[in-house]
């Protein structure tokens, strides 16, 4: 094995000195040995420096380790303190949790008791509901039985205007027996109007089933009549549908026809003797049969006034019978209606003087002619102005107005008085036959109660409208409107 100089130095260092000298003398010269020794010292110094450097590094490492150990000991102390604090906090939290659990347990027990009570209450309510349901079902069945067996026909529609029920009388009135129920049941108005049996009724109420009251309708080929009325179905003030009620008035129509015929005959029979009495009394009052004493003349004049009232009543009854027979309006002709108003005011001038009442007439300029039955419209104007005179306060004014609405092509008549007025409870019945308000009877005992009924029929026969406004004890205004276009007699 070959050795370099460094290896050889290490090798010789381990040998005894005399041996080394022998070898050195044999192998190297002195100079070579000096170089080798010098090199050996340099290497030794280098190693010493490295070892010193390593020693410094080890010391620094030890110092750092000591510092870390100190830090760890401090951290350990802090951890011990933190551990104690956490244990204290944990114990506190544990106590809080136990208290909360105890409170929750208590609350759960309370809630459980409440739930048990609620369950019992609900069971009681359920029992009550079952009882009420049974009662409700019984009432429902009773209601269905009543509707089914009513003498009036009933058609029941929901809010979507779909037919949901039909009773036996409605089937009879509308002749639905020959039609399959599925063709009209659960059908809406637009489908039902295509069915012949329903058309006449639905033409009256319309596709939206509007509110109507006692509209007459002839059914079948015989003289059979029904009245059609619409009534809402309400539950807790909420509309859930509508009834169409069909009321048989065939018997009433026959009775009414007989009554009208009797009234007409009786009135005609009364008219002749009353006319004879009138002419006789007039002749006596005028002195055609000689002079009469003042007392005799007074009683004859009273008899003549009573006879005139009887004639007026008979005329009203004849007019009533003509109205009910549908033959009241006879002759239509273009007329300046203000001329009729002026004529009536002139005729009432004496009564106005006696009662110290003024009639003030105002009219629009250039009023058009209106196609009317002059006699009948004059009767309306006369009735309204006479009523204003009869029921006004003395020494007041009666205002009569006549105006023309060019856009609507209507002429409006209005008469207003300050007087007894019409009680609120009587206002709905003012246009009924033979009706007079209680305060009117006290003020003016004589009257048939037919005037306003006749007025209404005359105006409506001219395609017009009539109405009034009134405050009891203050004032009353009666109005009517007539179209200025050509009138088709109703």
Quickly list its features:
57% helix, alpha+beta, Helix Hairpins, 5-stranded antiparallel sheet, 5-stranded mixed sheet, 490 residues, 4 domains, Beta-Lactamase
Please indicate the count of domains. Answer: 4
Q: Helix and strand string, N-terminal first?
A: HHHEEHHHEEEHHEHHEEHEEHHEE
Helical amount: 55-70%
Termini separation (Å)?
A: 154 Å
Q: By helix and strand content, what is the structural category?
A: alpha+beta
Supply Rg: 61 Å
| Structural shape | elongated
The tally of beta strands, per DSSP, is 12
In this structure, how is the largest beta sheet organized? 5 strands, antiparallel
Question: What do we call the CATH topology of the largest domain?
Answer: Heat Shock Protein 90
Strand arrangement, major sheet: 2-1-5-4-3
List the total number of helices. 13
Q: What would CATH call the homologous superfamily of the largest domain?
A: Histidine kinase-like ATPase, C-terminal domain
CATH architecture of the largest domain: 2-Layer Sandwich
CATH class category label of the largest domain:
Alpha Beta
Q: What is the beta-strand fraction?
A: 15-25%
Mean pLDDT reading:
81
List low-confidence stretches.
1-6
Structure summary:
The chain is of the alpha+beta class. 57% of the residues lie in helices and 17% in strands.
Write the layout of secondary structure elements.
Elements: H1 5-13, H2 17-27, H3 30-148, E1 153-158, E2 163-166, H4 168-173, H5 189-192, H6 196-205, E3 215-219, E4 224-235, E5 238-248, H7 250-285, H8 294-325, E6 333-335, H9 337-347, H10 349-355, E7 358-363, E8 370-372, H11 374-391, E9 397-405, E10 410-418, H12 438-443, H13 451-461, E11 465-471, E12 475-483
Parallel strand pairs: 7-9
Antiparallel strand pairs: 1-2, 1-5, 3-4, 4-5, 6-8, 9-10, 10-12, 11-12
């Amino acid at each position: 094995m070959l050795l370099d100089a460094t290896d050889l130095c290490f090798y010789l260092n381990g040998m005894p000195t005399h041996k080394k000298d022998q070898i050195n003398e044999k192998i190297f010269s002195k100079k070579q040995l000096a170089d080798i020794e010098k090199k050996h010292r340099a290497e030794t110094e280098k190693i010493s420096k490295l070892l010193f450097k390593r020693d410094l590094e080890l010391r620094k490492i030890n110092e750092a380790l000591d510092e870390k150990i100190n830090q760890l000991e401090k951290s350990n102390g802090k951890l011990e303190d933190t551990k104690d604090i956490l244990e204290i906090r944990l114990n506190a939290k544990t106590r809080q949790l136990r208290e909360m659990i105890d409170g929750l347990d208590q609350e759960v027990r309370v809630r459980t008791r409440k739930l048990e009570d609620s369950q019992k209450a609900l069971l009681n309510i359920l029992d009550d509901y079952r009882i009420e349901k049974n009662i409700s079902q019984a009432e429902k069945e009773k209601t269905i039985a009543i509707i089914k067996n009513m003498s009036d026909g009933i058609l029941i529609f929901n809010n979507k205007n779909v037919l949901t029920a039909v009773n036996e009388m409605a089937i009879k009135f509308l002749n639905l027996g020959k039609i399959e129920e599925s063709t009209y049941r659960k059908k809406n108005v637009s489908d039902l109007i295509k069915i012949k049996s329903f058309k006449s009724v639905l033409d009256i109420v319309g596709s939206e089933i509007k509110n109507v009251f006692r509209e007459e309708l002839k059914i079948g080929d015989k003289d059979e009549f029904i009245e059609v009325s619409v009534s809402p179905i309400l539950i807790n003030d909420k509309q859930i549908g509508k009834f169409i009620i069909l009321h048989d008035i065939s018997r009433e129509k026959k009775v009414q026809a007989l009554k009208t015929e009797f009234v007409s005959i009786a009135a005609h029979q009364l008219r002749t003797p009353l006319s004879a009495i009138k002419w006789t009394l007039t002749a006596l009052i005028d002195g055609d049969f000689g002079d009469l004493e003042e007392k005799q003349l007074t009683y004859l004049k009273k008899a003549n006034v009573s006879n005139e009232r009887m004639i007026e009543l008979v005329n009203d009854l004849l007019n009533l019978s003509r109205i009910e027979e549908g033959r009241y309006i006879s002759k239509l002709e273009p007329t300046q209606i203000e001329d009729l108003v002026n004529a009536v005011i002139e005729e009432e001038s004496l009564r106005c003087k006696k009662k110290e009442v003024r009639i003030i007439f105002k009219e629009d300029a250039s009023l058009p002619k209106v196609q009317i039955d002059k006699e009948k419209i004059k009767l309306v104007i006369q009735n309204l102005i006479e009523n204003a005179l009869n029921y006004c306060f003395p020494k007041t004014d009666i205002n009569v107005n006549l105006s023309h609405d060019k856009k609507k092509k209507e002429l409006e008549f209005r008469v207003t008085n300050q007087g007894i007025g019409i009680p609120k409870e009587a206002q709905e019945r003012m246009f009924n036959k033979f009706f007079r308000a209680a305060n009117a009877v006290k003020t003016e005992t004589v009257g048939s109660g037919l005037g306003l009924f006749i007025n209404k029929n005359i105006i409506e026969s001219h395609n017009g409208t009539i109405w009034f406004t009134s405050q009891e004890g203050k004032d009353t205004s009666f109005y009517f409107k007539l179209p200025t276009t050509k009138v088709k007699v109703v």
